[in-house]
Write a structure and sequence with these properties.
Blueprint: H1 18-22, E1 30-32, H2 35-44, E2 48-53, H3 58-68, H4 71-80, E3 82-87, H5 92-106, E4 113-117, E5 123-127, H6 141-154, H7 156-174, H8 185-197, H9 214-227, H10 230-245, E6 259-260, E7 268-269, E8 272-273, H11 274-291, H12 294-310, E9 319-322, E10 325-326, E11 329-330, H13 338-344, H14 347-356, E12 365-366, E13 373-374, H15 385-392, H16 396-415, E14 422-427, H17 428-444, H18 451-464, E15 473-477, E16 480-484, H19 487-504, H20 507-524, H21 558-573, H22 576-595, H23 601-611, E17 615-620, H24 626-636, E18 643-648, H25 652-660, E19 675-680, E20 683-684, H26 691-700
Parallel strand pairs: 1-3, 2-3, 17-18
Antiparallel strand pairs: 2-4, 4-5, 6-7, 8-9, 9-14, 10-11, 12-13, 14-15, 15-16, 17-19, 19-20
Helix pairs in contact: 4-6, 6-7, 9-10, 9-11, 9-23, 11-12, 11-17, 13-14, 17-18, 17-19, 18-19, 19-20, 19-21, 20-25, 21-22, 21-23, 24-26
């Protein structure tokens, strides 16, 4: 059997992706995705073994250690296949296509994603993690590879026929959507579905494993505002409180792990993803606006502190993720034994911290891979500190001060441990989400300092992650920007730019959003079909089909975000074409949304905006004037999601804005004082110089929850 010696390395050693580089010295003769691999497969008449994962994926590491580093398995693979490794974060277009196949064939999906396909990219086998040896009904690599090889040699016609049938079904499903029309009932249907799945004991939706799914919470906040339905808000506050208390939150260094393996949010998969930090920052920020709960504000600030401390590059962009494993063990960086805590803190402080954070003598962490319970603890809370303080008879402020001092000591000690691997590639789409989160926090928490890193990231992407013709690129690492941008890159980054404009009122960000939206329409819009955006550009790499997605996953779908962007830009610029495109999207995806409304909550968030009443607010004044700043403060304090805000000044920025939004050109201060122009539900009111009157106008046509 042929092998690729570890000392020599394979073709992945020349790639930029941290995930591909992790496999560069496997004995598997890996290829990156490209013509060389497919031509070799055709020439040697071999099927393709496609393995898709990402650098911080725990089970990807397990499969690598078990199989891809094993000479026996590598030899079998090298004889039977041409093997290709793909970083799903670098090539989400490839990942989405073959994940669709996996879900269709197996009923589930996940990473590592394993696809076996013909040299012309047609899949005939799909799985996720495959062990080395067969166990518990799951076929292992040692048995699978010879079976596939035999089928390819002896029954190749059947294999090719099966691959053609699979592709035919995938293509048919992709074209099954028929136009329809949404109504407000879709919002209530999504709410009812979420309410049915809601875990009333522990918060969140469904059973283990449990994901935070913050886009569901953002939808529920808007549904509460529209309907006044108290349980919608209760689902949000219960979930956010439970997340903050649980082990899914890093109580020592801040930030959220990716998901919990149990229903109580205690035991996480320890990787930290940038997109989770961004979306959860938005959820906690908006929940603070609604409730005034300072725990939500503190959590948003702590997430941001983690991102700015550990996930920000010197260029200004944000890194992608941190691994679950360190020193070959999942969660080792984050776990604590009682003895270690007792050795670091004064006896009384240690005793109190171990009690409050429920550290058990025998440990509370059970490794999912081995099933073994380690003598180590995930620090977590089961009740807010205010309740714990009352129970132990200690003033809350004193308990918080003690906990904070202990946290700092634990953090300093933890910093000396071997850190999890950091995936330091910068992705345009995930950066767009973080820019939006920082811009929203800057406004809602009245903290202009948060806008600065958002600006630095936006400027970096605009300067370093575009082609000379202005088209976006997806990935940046080690001074190289590469990989054609996807729908998500454009949609999420435009989202960030719109929010950043509203945080800073620098017209260049709004202008960039409009220009990029034009490119998105030019190269991703389905002009010949029902409308909507394809995931890949018309001049991108040709895969088996161009997909259009509407359902949310770990992230909101790109079409949903693009719809919301179109609506916001339409209201900010009075561009009727944007409104028409948005209406066409609503019709194009209506039937799919109505099939499972709770799977498309971000689309319904955009639909909620379209349904109205939405408001357009133009402030005519200068940020140098106290009255203008007072207007903004009052405008940003309440939860008013269905509004857009423009600042019209008399300086250069004002003239730039007038070119973007001509309708604002003649909106001017009144009697030398800053004035606010409010339009709601397609009707405009007289301008006012009074902040109270501004809020009254905004609430005049507001939904049920504001009529109090």
């Amino acid at each position: 059997m042929s092998q690729n010696p570890l000392s020599r390395g394979n073709r992945l050693q020349y790639e930029k992706s941290p995930y591909l580089l992790q496999h560069a010295y496997n004995p598997v003769d890996w290829y990156p995705w490209g013509d060389e691999a497919f031509e070799k497969a055709r020439k040697e008449n071999k099927p393709i073994f496609l393995s898709i994962g990402y650098s911080t994926c725990h089970w990807c590491h397990v499969m690598e250690r078990e199989s891809f580093e094993d000479p026996l398995v590598a030899g079998l693979m090298n004889d039977a296949f041409i093997s290709i490794k793909v970083d799903r974060e670098e090539r989400p277009d490839i990942d989405k296509l073959y994940m669709t196949v996996c879900q269709m064939l197996t009923g589930s999906g996940g990473w590592p994603l394993t696809i076996i396909m013909t040299p012309d990219k047609k899949p005939f086998f799909a799985a996720t993690y495959i062990p080395k040896e067969s166990r518990f009904g799951r076929t292992g690599m040692v048995a699978l590879i010879p079976a596939v090889e035999e089928a390819w040699i002896k029954r190749k016609g059947e294999v090719l026929s099966s691959a053609d049938q699979i592709i035919s079904v995938v293509q048919k499903q992709a074209g099954d959507a028929s136009p329809g029309e949404l109504s407000a009932s879709a919002l209530s249907d999504a709410y009812e579905q979420l309410a049915h799945r809601f875990d009333k004991h522990y918060g969140g939706f469904g059973t283990a494993p449990k994901f935070p799914s913050p886009h569901n919470l953002l939808f529920l906040l808007r549904y509460w505002k529209r309907s006044g339905e108290a349980f919608a808000l209760e689902m949000v506050t219960k979930t956010l409180s439970a997340l903050r208390l649980g082990g899914i939150y890093d109580h020592v260094g801040f930030g959220f792990h990716r998901y919990a393996t149990d229903e109580r949010w205690l035991v996480p998969h320890f990787e930290k993803m940038l997109y989770d930090q961004a979306l959860l920052t938005m959820a906690y920020t908006e929940a603070f606006q609604v409730t005034g709960n300072t725990e939500f504000e503190q959590t948003a600030r702590e997430i941001i502190a983690y991102v700015l401390r550990d996930m920000t590059s010197k260029q200004g962009g944000f890194y992608s993720a941190e691994d679950a494993d360190s020193e070959g063990e999942e969660g080792k960086f984050y776990l604590w034994s009682r003895e270690e805590v007792e050795s670091l803190l004064p006896a009384d402080d240690a005793r109190l911290l171990l009690k409050v954070f429920h550290a058990e003598k025998g440990g509370n962490f059970r490794d999912e891979a081995t099933g073994r319970k380690a003598a180590a603890n995930i620090l977590h809370l089961t009740k807010p500190l205010s309740v714990s303080a009352a129970e132990i008879g200690m003033p809350e402020e004193k308990l918080r001060a003690m906990i904070e001092a202990a946290r700092r000591r634990l953090f300093s000690t933890r910093e000396m441990r071997a850190h999890p691997f950091k995936d330091d590639k910068i992705l345009t789409d995930w950066n767009g989400l973080m820019i939006a989160a920082l811009a929203r926090a800057s406004q809602a928490l009245d903290d202009p300092a948060y806008a600065l890193p958002a600006q630095q990231a936006a400027d970096f992407i605009l300067d370093s992650m575009r082609l000379p013709n202005g088209r976006m690129l997806h990935r940046y690492r080690e001074e190289e920007a590469a990989v054609s941008a996807t729908l998500d890159d454009y949609a999420f980054f435009i989202w960030g730019l719109i929010d950043l404009y509203e945080a800073t009122f620098e017209a260049r960000y709004l202008q960039a959003a409009i220009m990029l939206n034009r490119d998105l329409l030019d190269h991703f819009w389905d002009e010949t079909g029902e409308g909507g955006f394809f995931f890949s550009a018309d001049d991108g790499e040709a895969l088996l089909l161009r997909q259009k997605e509407i359902y949310d996953g770990a992230l909101p779908s790109g079409n949903s975000v693009a719809l919301h962007n179109l609506l916001r830009l339409a209201r900010m610029t009075a561009n009727a074409d944007f409104e028409k495109k948005a209406a066409r999207m609503g019709m194009a995806f209506a039937s799919m949304v109505l099939q499972q409304p709770s799977a498309a909550t971000h689309f319904l968030t955009a639909f909620d905006f379209a349904l109205g009443p939405s408001c357009e607010v133009v402030i005519a004044g200068s940020l140098r004037q106290a009255e203008t700043r007072h207007f903004l403060k009052k405008l940003r304090e309440p939860f008013l999601p269905d509004k857009v805000v423009l600042l019209r000044t008399e300086d250069d920025e004002g003239r730039s804005l007038a070119r973007i939004a001509p309708f604002a050109e003649h909106m001017a201060p009144l009697n030398g004082k800053p004035a606010v122009y409010v339009c709601s539900n397609f009707a405009c009111s007289s301008p006012t110089t009074d902040a109270g009157e501004m809020l009254r106008l905004l609430k005049a046509g507001a939904p049920a929850s504001d009529q109090r």
